[in-house]
Amino acid sequence: MRSKLKLKLNFNYISSDPDDLLNTTTSDQKGYFRIYGEENEVGNIEPYLKITHSCDNGVIDPRCTITDQYTIPKEYVGRVYDMGIVSLNIAKKKHRKHCEN
């Protein structure tokens, strides 16, 4: 059985603080999720998805909290974006890992 993933849809905007939260959700047992966010801003936002999990190199380690960040392409702002299959065991550019002893 896979663990459920915690997901946060955030955005950056020039005149606001970074990491403004749009919405949160949790995946199902198979890892599927849907998330929606809306913001009323003048100008463009830069949305991104943060996925929090405990999958460390293909092994679930409950001592660890890992957060990966995925940018939502600008052309999908206001449209549906299908991320396809995301491999959590490959470290991303915006990858954070914290393990308790």
Structure, explained:
The structure is a single chain. With 101 residues, this protein is mainly beta. The protein has one domain (6-99). Helices cover 0% and strands 39% of the residues. The chain is built from no helices and 7 strands. The chain has strands at residues 6-12, 20-26, 46-53, 55-56, 59-60, 64-71, 95-99. The strands form 2 sheets. It has a 5-stranded antiparallel β-sheet with strand order 2-1-3-6-7, with no helix packed on it. A two-stranded antiparallel sheet has the order 4-5. A hairpin with a 2-residue loop joins strand 4 (55-56) and strand 5. It is globular, with a radius of gyration of 14 Å. The mean pLDDT is 85. This is Transthyretin-like family protein. One of its GO terms (cellular component) is cell surface. Keywords: Secreted, Signal. Its main location: secreted. It comes from Parascaris univalens (Nematode worm).
* Percent of residues in helices: under 10%
> Residue-averaged pLDDT, rounded?
85
Could you tell me the strand content as a percent range? 35-45%
Oligomeric assembly: single chain
Could you give the distance between the termini? 24 Å
Number of helices: 0
Q: Per the principal axes of the C-alpha atoms, what is the gross shape?
A: globular
Low-confidence blocks of residues:
none
Structural class of the secondary elements?
mainly beta
How many beta-strand elements? Answer: 7
Count of all domains: 1
**What is Rg?**
14 Å
What letter string, H or E per element, gives the SSE order? EEEEEEE
Biggest sheet record: 5 strands, antiparallel
> Which sequence of strands runs across the widest sheet?
2-1-3-6-7
